[in-house]
Recover the amino acids of this structure.
């Protein structure tokens, strides 16, 4: 069932998108009608005007989902399932010609030769100005100036069309015609090329970790693929073309010899350390520029015009061959389109970092599958499932080992016949270490439960300790003045700033995280309970005194219920803050939890997984909040009416 | 002899920052016999609420003392029940739980307290409202609950701090009749603070008019209207010539006091 759904996700998405569009249009229709209907009985500012309005919720949700589908290329994939494969073939052609384009203004604004001439001329000027006169004799200085001058001449000679080597002229001409041949082939159209069986057997777009099928599946794709293969060869040829003008040869030989002479002088002469270093460094930098210019990378500007025009024409031919695909690309694949790099084609821009809704759901179900053997769960832990928890472990958790140590008597020793008979003290130790089989209870398990467990335990401790302290702080001068500075000093520190310290002290497992969250929850609970307690009306306190209540009875029966609304609001806030802190803490350290999943997903750039964890966190947070709202409504119906 | 006796009662408030002292009450002497109905009237700032709070035991006098039945009052106690202006009900409890609050604090037997609650809800006219949340009650009904909550504890003295001040005129008149009925049926000593002259006349067998700076009892009246109110309609009594005469006299008295305060200020 799940597999079937997974394989047909594109068609399912197509149906969903259609429904969303219908929902969007329908909700606007209903909304406009309702607005007209109601505008008669409600004035602006009337709070009643916010009641109801499910249609606007539908409108908002469907708009959001449509935006999500659109920018994640979900709409493109649903209605143009072949587009990505064809775009991949076009990307192959792009990749093939990219080395040629890089040398031309069509790809990088300037001819590569122009850039080289400008950069090297600049560097020569800089080096000439920096000549260290103290380190060289005047003869040597003249020599170096001459070398720099010769190097500069190389630039001039290479740039002069009159000096261009005949070999490079011929090669460039032949290259241009090769490129023109490619354009011609594209213009002939795809014809009736048929995809190979291998190509047709590829997994569909987006169903496996290989995003886009690589082999061409359509006639148009095959055409582009073929052209791309030829273009790769052309690019190889282009990379080998060099312009070595004959006029340069004499200059190069002479300058080479002069540089060698100075290097020899550097080696043989006896200079002090600093001078030697200066001389060597300078000669080296002169030589570096010279070496860059003796290998024929600079062409006269006009010599590449033919290739540039041919490539521009190839781009035109590509556009023509794309045909309707160009429009689809522009409309339904926002961003940079498909890019081919090395062995695969990948979606770019929002198609890359915003996974399609259907893929997110598929990834969620893969994670939610409790059967780890068949690839479910994440890193050997389920998302949310259950396991048998030995009761012995639970007791051992609450029983420290030293209880056994302080019992009178000695632990058992092995006897002469080589056996050990455990005594009572051994039994207690076994209990404290969880080695006694007391049966098992079913217990929740998995990443989500681990995160929930940490929050719930920390929150429980925070409430248990924070509420009584807060209440006393609300009624007692000693408690208020003694604890106020302590809590107010640690509370404003962002919880994450405590994390490195706490995790070091208590360890990266549950203890540290629970303590960190406890600190957060405790401060919030203290403050809310205190606010609630100190807000008790004096007349209520006086009335209960007159009714004969003792101090303790007043605390329990008057001040505590009076503070309950504040306490519950505090819990609601604490849950939210704890949840946020926990995820961040799990990203810092640990091996389970929702934050851990996202951290791993981050390191491998698995955007689907990142979005799944974000959605899990959002939904759990929402569930918490809805639950708290319901509890508040049930427990304190008098809120705002007292 | 559960008489309420005030002996040279003085209260001076000192501002802790400036050290300025205000004599809220000076040399208050009176004896309220068991079963008497006293209303206290006076311009604002004359110390009538301070006096009530001292009798209730919420604040301690600077000098002198108040004693109930010979015992000097040193703190709040069940023998002196309080009814506040706003009811001061516990909104998280339903009506019956508000009424039996004092009984629960004393850990009274459950069946017994249920019967008592039933009886008092009947008397104040709230039969059948036991499970209603207090925040759903009207102001008058809330004051009835407050009365029942106080009476169920069987105090010797009932202290009321402007108990009907926040009610509309009609509800107020009904509640005034209720207070008179309760006074007659229970025979409790009742002390009512009010700033309505009419109410003070209607609900005062005895009436103190207090004066400010220092707070003191300016004039005392013994009035027949409370006794008459038990039999006659309150509206008829208000038409009575004697009633109008006393009312005008007291109004003039208070008016002059207010003038004096304004003049001094």
């Amino acid at each position: 069932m799940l597999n079937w759904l997974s394989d047909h996700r594109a068609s399912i998405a197509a149906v969903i998108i259609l429904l969303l569009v219908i929902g969007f249009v329908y909700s606007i229709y209903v909304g406009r009608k309702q607005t007209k209907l109601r505008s008669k009985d409600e004035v602006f500012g009337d709070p009643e005007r916010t009641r109801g309005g499910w249609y606007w919720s539908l409108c908002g949700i469907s708009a959001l989902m449509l935006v999500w589908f659109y920018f994640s290329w979900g709409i493109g994939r649903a209605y143009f399932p072949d587009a990505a494969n064809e775009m991949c073939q076009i990307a192959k052609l792009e990749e093939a010609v990219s080395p040629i384009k890089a040398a031309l203004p069509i790809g990088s604004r300037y001819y590569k030769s122009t850039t080289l001439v400008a950069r090297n001329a600049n560097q020569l000027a800089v080096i000439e100005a920096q000549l260290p006169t103290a380190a060289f004799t005047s003869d040597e200085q003249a020599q170096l100036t001459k070398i720099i001058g010769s190097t500069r001449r190389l630039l001039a000679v290479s740039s002069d069309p009159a000096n261009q080597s005949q070999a490079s002229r011929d090669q460039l001409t032949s290259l241009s015609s090769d490129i023109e041949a490619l354009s011609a082939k594209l213009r002939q159209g795809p014809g009736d090329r048929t995809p190979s069986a291998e190509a047709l057997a590829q997994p569909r777009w987006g169903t496996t970790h290989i995003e886009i099928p690589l082999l061409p599946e359509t006639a148009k794709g095959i055409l582009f693929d073929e052209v791309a293969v030829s273009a790769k060869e052309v690019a190889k040829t282009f990379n080998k073309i060099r312009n070595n003008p004959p006029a340069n040869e004499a200059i190069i030989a002479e300058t080479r010899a002069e540089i060698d002479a100075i290097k020899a002088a550097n080696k043989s002469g006896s200079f002090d350390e600093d001078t030697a270093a200066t001389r060597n460094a300078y000669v080296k930098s002169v030589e570096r520029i010279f070496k860059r210019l003796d290998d024929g990378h600079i062409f006269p500007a006009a010599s590449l015009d033919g290739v540039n025009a041919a490539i521009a024409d190839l781009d035109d031919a590509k556009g023509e061959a794309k045909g309707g695909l160009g429009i689809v690309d522009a409309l339904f694949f926002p961003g940079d389109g498909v890019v081919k790099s090395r062995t695969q084609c990948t979606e770019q821009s929002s198609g890359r970092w915003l996974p399609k809704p259907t893929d997110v759901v598929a990834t969620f179900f893969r994670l939610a599958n409790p059967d780890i053997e068949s690839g479910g769960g994440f890193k050997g832990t389920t998302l949310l499932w259950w396991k048998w928890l030995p009761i012995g472990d639970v007791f051992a958790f609450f029983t420290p080992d030293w209880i056994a140590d302080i019992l009178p008597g000695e632990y058992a020793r092995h006897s002469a016949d080589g056996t050990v008979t455990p005594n009572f003290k051994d039994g207690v130790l076994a209990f404290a270490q969880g080695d006694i089989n007391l049966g098992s209870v079913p217990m929740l398990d998995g990443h989500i439960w681990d995160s929930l467990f940490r929050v719930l335990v920390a929150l429980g401790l925070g409430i248990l300790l924070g509420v009584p302290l807060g209440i006393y702080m609300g009624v007692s001068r000693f408690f208020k003045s003694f604890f106020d500075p302590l809590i107010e000093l640690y509370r404003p520190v962002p919880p994450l700033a405590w994390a490195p310290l706490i995790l070091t002290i208590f360890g990266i497992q549950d203890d540290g995280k629970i303590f960190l969250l406890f600190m957060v929850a405790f401060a919030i609970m203290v403050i809310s309970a205190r606010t609630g307690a100190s807000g008790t009306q004096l007349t209520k306190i006086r009335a209960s005194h007159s009714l004969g209540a003792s101090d303790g009875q007043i605390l329990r029966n008057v001040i505590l219920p009076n503070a309950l609304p504040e306490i519950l609001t505090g819990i609601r806030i604490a849950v939210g803050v704890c949840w946020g802190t926990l995820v961040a803490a799990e990203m810092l350290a640990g091996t389970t939890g929702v934050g851990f999943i996202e951290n791993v997903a981050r390191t491998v750039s698995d955007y689907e997984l990142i979005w799944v964890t974000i959605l899990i966190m959002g939904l759990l947070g929402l569930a918490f909040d809805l639950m708290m709202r319901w509890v508040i409504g049930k427990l304190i119906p008098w809120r705002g009416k007292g | 002899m559960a008489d309420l006796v005030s002996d040279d009662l003085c209260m001076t408030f000192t501002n802790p920052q400036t050290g300025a002292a205000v004599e809220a009450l000076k040399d208050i002497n009176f004896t309220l016999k068991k079963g008497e109905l006293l209303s206290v009237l006076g311009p604002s700032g004359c110390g009538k609420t301070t006096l009530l709070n001292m009798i209730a035991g919420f604040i301690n006098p600077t000098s002198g003392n108040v004693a109930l039945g010979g015992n000097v009052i040193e703190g709040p106690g069940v023998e002196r029940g309080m009814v506040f202006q706003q009811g001061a009900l516990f909104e998280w409890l339903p009506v019956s739980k508000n009424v039996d609050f004092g009984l629960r604090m004393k850990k009274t037997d459950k069946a017994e307290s249920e019967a008592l609650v039933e009886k008092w809800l009947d008397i104040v006219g709230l039969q059948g409202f036991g499970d209603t949340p207090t925040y759903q009650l009207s102001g008058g009904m809330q004051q009835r609950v407050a009365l029942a909550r106080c009476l169920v504890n069987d105090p010797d003295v009932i202290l009321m701090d402007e108990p009907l001040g926040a009610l509309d005129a009609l509800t107020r008149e009904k509640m005034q009749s209720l207070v008179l009925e309760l006074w007659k049926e229970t025979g409790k000593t009742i002390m009512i603070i009010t700033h309505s002259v009419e109410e003070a006349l209607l609900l005062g067998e005895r009436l103190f008019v207090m004066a400010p700076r220092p707070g003191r009892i300016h004039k005392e009246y013994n009035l027949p209207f409370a006794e008459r109110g038990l039999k006659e309609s309150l509206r008829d009594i208000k038409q009575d010539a004697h009633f109008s005469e006393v009312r005008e006299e007291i109004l003039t008295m208070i008016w002059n006091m207010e003038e004096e305060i304004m003049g001094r200020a």
In short: Chain A has 28 helices and four strands.
